[in-house]
Amino acid sequence: MPKFLIQATYTPEGTKGLLSEGASGRRAAVDQVVSGLGGKVETMYFAFGEDDIVLIVDFPDPVSMAAVSLTVKASGALHTRATPLLTIDEIDEAARRQVNFRAPVRDAKRSDSSPVRPAVTRGMATSRKSLSGDL
User: Fold this and answer.
1) 53-91 burial by CB neighbour count: b if 16+ within 10 A, else e?
2) CA pair distance 111, 121, nearest whole angstrom
3) What one-character-per-residue DSSP string does 65-94 give?
4) Is-contact 58 51, C-beta < 8 A?
5) Among 65, 55, 58, which residue's Cα sits nearest to residue 1?
6) Suppose 3 and one of 19, 33, 42, 85 were both cysteines; which one would form an S-S bond, judging by CB atoms 3.0 to 4.6 Å apart?
């Protein structure tokens, strides 16, 4: 089942709800939402700093995660970020796959479309160009 890291920050209205329900009330609400879509809450922590809540959840598919995200954001009680989490085996499989990718050409010298093999930088496999750039 796909895993997701959810980081959330309460709005002032959401914080008022937390204060009236308590942390255990919010945990029960989260469990109900996640299990209602066939998922499971692996862990949930309240935190200080940029995020108020950090969770790891399993959902049967990314569409279920998107449904929860849309509904929670529409409530206005929280600002959330969901990050798909990949296992070691999934990254190993991704690293073995050939990808025919041509980076946007700035220099006419490099215009081939040969496969780009991952290069290790700072512990994470990335292509020769940053993965945050244009595809």
Assistant:
1) bebbbbbeeeebbeebbeebeeeebbebebeeeeeeeee
2) 24
3) HHHHHHHHHHHTSEEEEEEEE--HHHHHHH
4) no
5) 58
6) 85
Residue 105: its pLDDT value, please? Answer: 84
| 40 burial level (CB within 10 Å; 0-12, 13-18, 19+) | middle
Q: Which two tokens stand for residue 119?
A: 């290069």
80: left (phi over 0), alpha (psi -120 to 50) or beta: beta
The CA angle 78-83-84, to the nearest 5 degrees, is: 140
Q: For residue 124, give the amino acid letter.
A: M
> Hey, what are 132's tokens?
């945050």
Helices 12-36 and 62-75: crossing angle in degrees, nearest 10, is 150
- pTM for this prediction: 0.72
Instruction: Give me the residues of the chain with pLDDT under 70, please.
Output: 107-135
Question: Which residues have C-beta within 8 Å of that of residue 98, sequence separation ≥ 6?
Answer: 115
Structure tokens that stand for 15 in this block: 């914080």
